[in-house]
Amino acid sequence: MRVKVACIGGGPAGLYLSILLKLRDPSHDITVYERSPEGSTYGWGVTYWRGLLDKLCEHDPVSARTIEESSVRWSEGVAHVRGRTTRRPGDAGYGIGRHRLLEILAERARSLDVRLRFEKEITPGNLPAADLVVASDGVHSALRARYADHFGTESRAGRNRYIWLGTSKAFEAFTFSFVESGHGWIWCYGYGCGPDAGTFVVECAPETWTGLGFDTASEAEALAVLEKVFAGVLDGHPLMGRSGADGKAQWQTFRTLTNRTWYRDNLVLLGDAAHTTHYSIGAGTTLAVEDAAALAGALHEHATLPQALAHYQQRRQQDLLAIQSAAHYSARWYENLPRYIHLPPQQMFALLGQRHSPLLPYVPPQLYYRLDRAAGQSEAWRRLKQWLGVKVARTVHARTLASRE
After folding, report:
1. In what side-by-side order are the strands of the sheet with 174-181?
2. Rounded distance between C-alpha atoms, residue 325 and residue 98, angstroms
3. Could you give the CA distance from residue 137 to residue 272 in angstroms, rounded to a whole number?
4. Do the bridges between strand 153-157 and strand 255-259 make them parallel or antiparallel, or are there none, so unpaired?
5. Sorting pLDDT into bands at 50, 70 and 90, what band is 37?
6. What pTM was computed for the model?
7. DSSP string covering 26-95
8. Of all residues in the chain, what percent are helix, strand and coil, respectively (each to 5)?
9. Tens-place pLDDT, residues 65-82
């Protein structure tokens, strides 16, 4: 169907949707509205994996090629624990600066005659006239918030505190470092996102956060402490933050967002406006692209807008079950770090790689490690874990829906 579309929010989800819709039918009338100036963005780098690159190549080889050329690649993980270093080979991973990713997508959208309107604030009170309005305005979506009761929006805060930082160090591998302070453990995830740039995420339990004084520290004070704590992996490179108006460092607790319904009349949720998954599984960009592809496909395949939106919602909610389960257990692994941190480093790092498993929290860690080692490359073991992950996710989803009724 030919449609006039207004995408509210110029992040990866909204931009990629505009690209895919234009590729399917150049007659679509599409405008992307972004409240911030062009070229300004929060965050440092984003991660993605080979599976996403394959999907990007399938949907739009032109932008996929530019994204790959602008990305940093790694193929192993490194963990530093108590002065010891453990390395493990892994799947091909990629990092790209968020600014560069948005630049590529915006350029591609313009080449397809998508209109981009920057510094344009869209609220529920000034929605543009369109057949379809896409709320791709992120986790704090004003459009979703206006109809939160209809969407059945729920937001659950995690326990740990985290901060998203940048550094001039371009990590050659996905790097973890766990450091024991006088107030508990604090750890980081570091990965490259450009020739001379890296992303540096720091996380700790709330008692460690307050014990180290981060609850009252300015950004400059917090960065000085963190540069000292993680000197072993930063190799003299500085950390960079993004302080708020009060000068404080931007520590947060991650909020897992879900919605029972993803559309209302001609308004549909996309990307982080519809759902969030814990950053420790590095799936945010992948899910935004998959949402966009599913919505573009549904609009192309169905004769009416209600049919298309219903199909999109059903497909994406179903597809998300397993990854939402993985994100839940990954966040839980870090919140229960003392359960694993005193294992021998090789075992600890192996269970770090198994943190998505719904079995791990209920099996003694060393026993789980031995079972996993004994199973080796067993296809039956992999299938069992995958089956259990989906089953647990569906059970939790069903209980959540039942509790809302």
Report:
1. 45-49, 84-97, 72-81, 174-181, 184-194, 197-204, 161-167, 239-240
2. 26
3. 8
4. antiparallel
5. very high
6. 0.91
7. TT-EEEEEESSPTT--S-SEEEEEHHHHHHHHHH-HHHHHHHHHT-EEEEEEEEEETTEEEEEEEEEEEE
8. 45, 25, 30
9. 999 999 999 999 999 998
Q: Residues near 379 by Cβ (< 8 Å), separated by ≥ 6? A: none
H or E, element range at 163 = strand 161-167
Please tell me the distance from the alpha carbon of residue 135 to that of residue 146, in angstroms, as a whole number: 11
CB atoms within 10 A of CB 326: 21
How far is it, in rounded angstroms, from Cα 194 to Cα 207? 34
Contacts of 260 (CB under 8 A, 6+ apart): 151, 152, 401, 404
Per-residue pLDDT tens over the stretch 367-387: 989 888 876 656 666 666 666
- Asked whether the beta carbons of 156 and 396 are under 8 A apart, the reply is no
- Encoded amino acid at 2, one letter: R
Half-sphere exposure at residue 128, Cβ-oriented, CA atoms within 13 angstroms: 21
Structure-block tokens of residue 178: 């766990």
Report the length, in residues, of the chain.
405
Q: What residue type is assigned to position 212 of the chain?
A: L
The DSSP code sequence of 349-399 is HHHHHTTT-SSGGGS-HHHHHHHHHHHTT-HHHHHHHHHHHHHHHHHHHHH
- 295, amino acid identity: L
